[in-house]
Design brief:
Radius of gyration: 14 Å
Strand content: 35-45%
Helix content: 10-25%
Shape: globular
Strand order of the largest sheet: 5-4-3-7-6
CATH class: Mainly Beta
Number of strands: 10
CATH architecture: Beta Barrel
CATH superfamily: LytTr DNA-binding domain
Order of helices and strands: EEEEEHEEEEEH
Distance between the termini: 14 Å
Structural class: alpha+beta
Number of domains: 1
CATH topology: OB fold (Dihydrolipoamide Acetyltransferase, E2P)
Largest sheet: 5 strands, antiparallel
């Protein structure tokens, strides 16, 4: 897991876009980041969707690893957005979210599953 830079703790908000408007949202209000058609989206806990101008790899380096986990190539999730997880295809994990109107299927690979279990147990 990537080390969390101390100077980034000061940044509690992210600038995101919704249409032509730029908004500042609190990191604590973010449920997940995901990529779709090479565009990174932010989904907040109220299930509002925004566009973000960084890649998931760049985000992964900036986010607190105690709060956010890179589930796969498409998703970074906030620990508070996780309702539960269960085995999927014997060696993978499926993460179920606290979000009611969002139908994202998050699958953690066999390779990442043990890191996810360790992360969620320590946070």
């Amino acid at each position: 897991m990537i080390e969390y830079a101390d100077n980034l703790k000061k940044h509690t908000r992210l600038l995101v876009r919704k249409g032509t408007e730029t908004l500042a949202i609190k990191r604590d209000d973010i449920a997940l980041f995901y990529t779709e058609n090479k565009v990174v989206f932010v989904l907040d806990k109220q299930e509002q969707k925004y566009i973000y101008n960084k890649t998931l790899t760049e985000l992964e380096e900036e986010l607190d690893p105690h709060e956010f986990f890179r589930a796969n190539r498409q998703y970074i999730i906030h620990i508070d957005a996780i309702k539960s997880f269960k085995p999927y295809e014997r060696v993978k994990l499926q993460i179920l979210l606290n979000l009611t109107n969002t139908f994202h299927t998050l699958i953690v690979s066999q390779h990442t599953a043990s890191s996810f279990k360790k992360w969620i147990g320590q946070s």
